[in-house]
Design brief:
By secondary structure, the chain is α+β, with helices and mostly antiparallel strands. It has one domain: Alpha-D-Glucose-1,6-Bisphosphate, Chain A, domain 4 (2-Layer Sandwich). Helices cover 28% and strands 32% of the residues. It is built from four helices and seven strands. A hairpin with a 2-residue loop joins β5 and β6.
Length: 177
């Protein structure tokens, strides 16, 4: 499950699982604390309560020490910000957020389940408006979670953009029009 592909579970929903080294509080911190979340996904404040607000800043060029040019189609999103609202918060097991994205509001869920010394993290992204959005989000989560795995296993960080481009091609095959 270390690098398995995620799946489209409903027409507008993508879900992906990763087994991460625990304990659960460590993984929860990487999902909720700005500094740790910023190492693999997006930094920014987040109020951990129902109705809590957050502002996630995505800076993909800083997620890996490997310098790569940003692909043309993503240059306008180089430092994208997303306003989030917490709709469910059950530390350290469940966090559900509405993400106010350019194409509408999406819902992102982090579910953490202890499994021995590991933690199963399930990320579910709902209300995706198109197949193109499903493919882009799928490859994004796959890449981001790979970088999280690298951090938690204390191994060299994979490059973001070349990994994302590879995963985008794979998800284009897995999620046809």
């Amino acid at each position: 499950m270390d690098e398995e592909h995620g799946t489209v579970t409903e027409p507008s929903t993508f879900s992906i699982e990763r087994v991460l080294p625990g304990p659960i509080d460590r993984v929860w911190a990487y999902c909720t604390e700005s500094e740790k979340r910023g190492k693999w996904l997006a930094s920014g404040p987040l109020e951990l309560k129902v109705g809590g607000k957050g502002l996630f800043t995505f800076d993909h060029s800083r997620l890996s020490p490997t310098h790569e040019a940003t692909p043309e189609q993503y240059r306008d999103k180089m430092k994208m910000q997303i306003e989030v609202t917490v709709t469910r918060c059950e530390p350290p097991r469940v966090l559900v957020m509405d993400w106010n994205m350019q194409d509408g509001e999406n819902e992102v869920t982090f579910e953490l389940t202890p499994s021995g010394s590991n933690v199963l993290l399930v990320v579910t992204h709902r209300r995706l408006s198109s197949r193109a959005m499903l493919r882009g989000i799928s490859s994004g989560w796959h890449t981001h979670l790979g970088i999280l795995l690298d951090h938690l296993h204390d191994r060299p960080l994979r490059p973001f953009w070349s990994t994302h481009e590879k995963m985008l091609k794979e998800y284009e095959q897995r999620i046809p029009e």
